[in-house]
Amino acid sequence: QVQLVESGGGLVQAGGSLRLSCAASGSIFYINAMGWYRQAPGKQRELVATIIRGGSTNYADSVKGRFTISRDNAKNTVYLQMNSLKPEDTAVYYCNLKAFGDYWGQGTQVTVSS
């Protein structure tokens, strides 16, 4: 069993920054990738950023240059540094871990006011 606990969401003004964290615990033997997805009201869940085992990263076009994903392997933790936030970044952000299975966190709300 794998548990993902997210933190760092909140309310911020446009142009501001937030840092999300996701700590993984439980029966983790091999992590293929960790990442962040988001879901805005009335929209489908979409990829924000991922980081694979070898360290390569991938970003949605809408966040390139503003968001940075990183990880601490020793802590099984992934971070998402979000800068220059826009109102359209408002969503529930979900942490994802791909191992011998696909695991999701409970989500953390990010609200960007104009």
List the helices and strands and how they pair.
Elements: E1 2-7, E2 10-13, E3 18-26, E4 33-39, E5 46-52, E6 57-59, E7 67-72, E8 77-82, E9 91-99, E10 101-104, E11 108-113
Parallel strand pairs: 2-11
Antiparallel strand pairs: 1-3, 3-8, 4-5, 4-9, 5-6, 7-8, 9-10, 9-11
Task: Describe, in plain words, how this protein is organized in 3D.
The protein is mainly β and 114 residues long. Helix content is 0%, strand content 59%. It is globular, with a radius of gyration of 13 Å. The model has no long low-confidence stretch (mean pLDDT 95).
Task: Let me know the largest β-sheet.
Answer: 7 strands, mixed
How many whole angstroms does the radius of gyration measure? 13 Å
Strand residue percentage = over 45%
Count helical runs: 0
Could you state the order of secondary-structure elements as H and E?
EEEEEEEEEEE
Principal-axes geometry comes out as globular
- Average pLDDT figure: 95
